[in-house]
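Our example pasted here:


***
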Amino acid sequence: MTINIGKTVFSDAGRICRIAAAMALLSAGMLAAGGCSTSNTSNTAPVAGVEGPKDTGSYPNLNIPPQVAAKQLTKEETDAKLAQLKGEQQAQLAKSGGGGQTASPAALNSLAKNHGDQALKQIETKCDPALDPSCN
């Protein structure tokens, strides 16, 4: 009885190993076949004005300040731009009708306590304040 059980266990293990080896060989073959693809680089457009890194044969000198890309703003130009932006901000605030004031913490706390009850009353009475301003 024991010999038959041993044959079954070991032959099953051998079969599993053979299946695993076959799967490994098949997947390796598929990976190798997938690597044989080609790409067409003749249709790519060249990038104009882009130069890659150049090997100068020496380390960069970090003591030399880099060249600036554009002329820097003077103090007067900076102040003029800030004044222009603040003027536009004030005009926008005046147009919206608000000074950007926030509610006090006490008002926000009372709103948090009462808002849920007021919303439930409106829902239960099916009252829409957008249609009927006297509805509260």
Remarks:
- The chain has a mean pLDDT of 77.
- Helices lie at 2-34, 75-96, 105-124.
